[in-house]
Design goal:
By secondary structure, the protein is an alpha/beta fold. The chain is built from 19 helices and 14 strands. Strand 7 and strand 8 form a beta hairpin.
């Protein structure tokens, strides 16, 4: 049984009537969507949205203003009350661009998790793009074989995706959004044609980085996701320019009407809500730049966005359609990892995990992380043999790995970094406190597994009994088998001193 199947035995399967929740900590608004699982399908039963304007509180040094921080915490506390009865494994809360830009994200995430009552994951821009596409694809079913372009303009970033079916083919994330762009070009509130042209040119340069690649690939339809595109579509409809879509003919008319105001406070666009008025200028700049760079003529608008994608992603996680499994396989192939050796280490790591899990209260997520770390523990060999655990950790932490949050990649990176040699004091510094115990304990299991297979032979380990009592581990092995492997025996004798750096006591017993 592989790690996914074993993880499934540790997790309660979804049953009819079970509830799930997805929370999106966006740079402009916080969204929460609650759904019930019925006959293999999701049915939305509740939606909550609050305008928090997180990006508004971000300064040039990566700090968050006290006012905006409190606004965010108050909102999350309200969300937490709504989902108090939903089990933690059925809730995913994801933070995006503004939290990615924080210099000390834990100073916000720790109180934010306390307010919400659930852990909060930070995701990369490309992972955000994948989830956005997944949400749109499920809301508006794609035609078989056709390609579609999805553009999502958020408060701090813009994601552009080309996908086929339910899979993203190309993903890009740009550091331009409706709040960030409005602050950058119209920070004093004044609107002018000259400043507008400068803004469109500078933002357009961001799209030019991938425009040729996207246009060469092509698409059959373009869809705008999230609040900014929806707001602009509603303006187009209110001005009787379209029935809700955004077109190359309508967009300049919306822009000209906006510029007539002369100042952000005086913007008077039909169909525009009051809470969107302060940031709509930046959103229209970004969309105009996207239309020009990508050669768009028409863009439909979707009501779905990342939060819906998160719900559908939760259905696949831990099952046969877990996107993370495909990503691990892709990394294995890309970096030419010795699959046989990785499988040996993984098998032994799972063997140890099953004995330690009850005492340490390790769960299915811990099992998956340990198994994936075992498969990737030699990824750094493609760079150099010396200190390959350091190279491997860097590759894992800094790659765009579909399906993984930043914390998950940091977790994997920490396990790979500490699977051999000395354990640095800073190895787990990037992880939130809630993950520290499981990370250190999983690292110990991986260390032992990698050490036992250092000779890279296919011999089965006849006896491998692990007793766990708090921080104390007793590993019982066959004496005669060990006596035939003097190098392994020497390694095992020195391992307790190294594993002590993980806060654990290891005893080797051979009988």
């Amino acid at each position: 049984m592989d790690a996914l199947a074993r993880a499934g035995t540790l997790t309660s399967p979804l049953r009819d009537g079970d509830m799930l929740a997805a929370i999106d900590l966006g740079s402009n608004s916080f969204h929460m969507v609650v759904a019930t699982y019925t006959l293999g399908q999701l049915r939305i039963v509740d939606r909550l949205r609050e305008t928090v304007r997180l990006a508004e509180g971000l300064d040039g040094k990566g700090a968050l203003s006290a006012e905006v921080r409190q606004r965010a915490l108050t909102c999350l506390a309200r969300f937490g009350q709504r989902i108090r009865e939903i089990p933690p494994q059925r809730v995913r809360a994801l933070a995006t661009n503004t939290v990615r830009l924080l210099a000390a994200p834990q100073s916000f995430l720790v109180p934010a998790e306390t307010a919400l009552g659930h852990g909060i994951e930070v995701i990369s821009g490309r992972e955000e793009a994948r989830l956005i596409y997944l949400g749109v694809a499920h809301a508006q079913r794609p035609r078989p074989g056709s390609l579609r372009l999805v553009v999502d303009i958020g408060g701090g970033s813009t994601e552009c995706i080309i996908g086929r079916g339910f899979q993203a083919v190309e993903r890009e994330s740009l550091q331009v959004g409706c709040i960030a762009t409005t602050r950058r070009f119209f920070g004093n509130g004044k609107l002018s044609k000259k400043k507008w042209r400068e803004a469109v040119i500078e933002v357009g340069a961001e799209f030019q980085q991938f425009a040729n690649t996207y246009r060469a690939l092509g698409w059959n339809e373009a869809i705008g996701a999230s609040g900014t595109n929806k707001a602009i579509g509603e303006i187009c409809a209110a001005m009787k320019l379209t029935k809700g879509a955004v077109t190359a003919e309508a967009l300049p008319q919306v822009r000209d009407r906006l510029l007539q105001a002369g100042h952000i406070d005086d913007i008077d666009l039909p169909g525009l809500s009051a809470d969107r008025r302060p940031i709509i200028a930046g959103g229209i700049v970004v969309l105009e730049a996207a239309f020009a760079a990508l050669g768009l003529t028409r863009m439909a608008v979707s009501k779905a966005a990342m939060r819906e994608g998160v719900l559908y992603d939760m259905l696949g996680r831990g099952g046969e359609h877990d996107p993370r499994e495909a990503s691990i396989l892709a990394l294995t192939q890309r970096y030419g990892i010795d699959v046989a050796q990785a499988a040996r280490v993984e098998t032994t790591a799972i063997r140890l995990f099953e004995q330690a899990a009850p005492a340490w209260k390790l769960d299915s997520d811990d099992l998956l992380m340990l198994a994936w770390a075992a498969r990737l523990h030699e990824v750094g060999l493609v760079i150099a043999h010396s200190q390959y655990q350091v190279h491997g950790a860097y590759v894992i932490e800094h790659s765009d790995i579909a399906g993984f949050s930043r914390q998950e990649q940091q977790f994997l990176g920490a396990l790979v970094r500490t699977h051999r040699r000395r354990v640095p004091k800073s190895a787990f510094d990037a992880l939130p406190d809630r993950l520290l115990d499981s990370a250190r304990r999983s690292a110990a299991l991986l260390r032992i597994s990698a050490l036992l297979h250092r000779a890279r032979d296919a011999d089965e380990i006849p006896r491998l009994d692990l007793e766990v009592a708090g921080s104390r581990l007793i590993l019982r092995m066959d004496r005669r088998w060990l006596e035939m492997r003097p190098l392994l025996r020497a390694d095992l004798e020195s391992e307790p001193a190294d594993i002590a750096s993980l806060g654990l006591q290891l005893e080797i017993a051979a009988d």
